[in-house]
Structures are given as structure tokens and as C-alpha cells.
Automatic annotation (TrEMBL):
Organism: Paenibacillus oenotherae
Keyword ATP-binding belongs to the record: no
Keyword terms: Hydrolase, Protease, Serine protease, Signal
Designated name of the protein: Trypsin-like peptidase domain-containing protein
Pfam families: Cu_amine_oxidN1 (PF07833), Trypsin_2 (PF13365)
Domain called Copper amine oxidase-like N-terminal: residue spans: 38-81
Claim: Plastid is one of the keywords in the record: no
PANTHER family: PROTEASE DO-LIKE 5, CHLOROPLASTIC (PTHR43019:SF23), SERINE ENDOPROTEASE DEGS (PTHR43019)
Signal sequence range: 1-21
Amino acid sequence: MKKKLLIGIFALMLMSGTAYAASAINGLYKGREIVKVKVNGKEVQSKVPGQLINGTTMLPLRAVAEALGAQVNWDDSKQIASIVPAKPAQELTLAQLNKIGKDVGLVRVVDMQGRQAGTGSAFITQEYLVTNWHLIEDGATSRIHVDLGRMVYLYFDKSEAVFINKKADLAAFKLPGFTGLKLNTNKPKKGDIVYALGYPGTKFTLSEGNVLAINGNNITHDAAIDHGSSGGVLIDSSGNVIGITDGGDSATGRNNAIQAKLIQDEINKLKEE
């Protein structure tokens, strides 16, 4: 049986955040005065609006909990509703980020005469070296030299790519024996802490920022990147790859990463062959 849970406004004080109710001429709901409730300055949205019942402001429990970034668990057998606060995101330490960086490499694109045509980044996951297609697409004889920063040097010809997705700007090479980083294929949320790791200017760098928006398969964030970061990784606060760097706008500080799901989709196709 579906149940509607109501909570008095005083219960909001049990959770982090500032809430207040503003009684105004907001209309009626089933004969009761509607009361708008705000949490941290933002009005709580709910199918059942806040109501003034016997002098107390009441609002569905789930609406309040979710407005505070928590969730409600319902135990039907015990008829108990529990508010579970969201766990605060933990920032990664410098040591943890440097360890992750061992699976991120510097890419040098060269022609058959060994002349450097450009630089970028790449990373390892599930025995594949993944980078951006735009880094290696120019020239029929392009080769890439990869320095993983741990005395491991790799050499590939563009023709050795095991998958190429030009639309998603992805390319990968088989790399047996290297497990690499884990992919997180879930969509991140706006405000999530992220880290960009790569080789702008041929030097390993890492920067911290936040997710600004999700647009289709792209993650917009403000972790600093620069020329050469393309092909590097965007890491979540658990140390998993949520995206691959694919450019940015230095003027606005809004940078782009392709969601890890597209990489996993390509790897899954290879496994099915």
C-alpha cells in the first residue's frame, strides 16, 4: 500500500541545512493552506505541497530529505521510514593521485622520420591504452610513443588501434598485462569533486575541480587543463575514471570530458567479437 509520509518543519533541524516556511497566499490543497518551504534558499519541490495543519507546517518526508541531499528508506514490514544522510565526498590525497598517475601516459605523435607532430595524453584501463582519436588521426604514417612515467615506453602505429570511434573522439590500443584504472560508467552529478590528470606541456599535472554540467555524453567541469591534456583522465573522488579529457576553453575555464561509458561500450564490443 502506497503511503504518504508527512513531517513537521521542526524535523528539518535534524539534518544539515537551513530551512524555513513562508506562509503566504499560495492557495489551498484539499482545503488546507499551502505553505512554501525553502531549504538553503531553494524552494522544495513536491507533488504534495507543504500545508498548514493545526498550526504546524507539514511536508512529505522524501521531498525534504532529497532537498538536503539525503534519501528515505522505507521498511514495509516494520512500517518505519529512515532518513539516510548522504556521505560527504572525500577528497583524494596527493599520494593517491600520483599513484593513479602511473597509469596515465605522455603521448608523442611522430612521423616515420621521427619528427614530433604533437603531444597529448593517454591512460590504461582493462589492458587497453585509451586516447583521443584527434591526437593520432593526422597523417597516414603517424606513430605514437607513450611514456608512462615509470620507465615504461610503448610504441604504436595508428593502424594498430583496436577500436576507433571518430564521433566520440576515441581510439585505443591493446596492452596485455596492464590492468590499469577502473571506469565508472555512471553519470556524475553537478557539483561532484573531480580531478584532471594529464601531460600538458609534456609534464604530468593534476588539478581539482567540480562538475559544472552534463550534456549528453559530455561532462563539463572546471578542473584546470591545458594543451596536451587531451586523452588524459577525469577522476572521481573514489579514484575511478569518469571521463577522458577532450578539450576546453581557457577563457571561461569550462572544460570537457567524454563520459567513460562510451569507452566501456567500445571495450564490450571487442569482448563480444
